[in-house]
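On clarity, I found the account of how folds are encoded harder to follow than it need be. What matters is that the chain and its backbone geometry are given together, residue for residue. The format is easy to grasp once an entry is in front of the reader. For illustration, here is how one protein appears when written out as sequence plus structure tokens.
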Amino acid sequence: DAGVHSKAWYAATCDRKTAEDALHQSNKDGSFLVRKSSGQDSRQPYTLVVFYNRRVYNVPIRFIESTRQYALGREKSGEERFGSVAEIVENHQRTSLVLIDSQNNTKDSTKLKHIVRVS
């Protein structure tokens, strides 16, 4: 179990546009939520949606079948892996998360600070 279902930051039925709209409305750097990925792929079950610097980042959360762990973004060597999605969120509430803008090839970082609830 990813440990998401009882969490305030988990927006189960939320689609990408609803999540992005909610984060734009919050307008606070470090606002975030986790939603189900639109692709319904078992290898990428969730998406971490983060607001920073007037932009919304959709960061894929991957499930690694071989180790039954979760990781963020594209696979890379030496990546951090976690036992649950909740552990990813808790970790990045304490340590900065690197946000990569693939269109402009820029990097930012922020901690996950403000939970956004989608009604």
Observations:
- The chain has two helices and eight strands.
- Residues 16-115 form a domain with the SHC Adaptor Protein fold (CATH 3.30.505.10).
- The chain has one domain: 16-115.
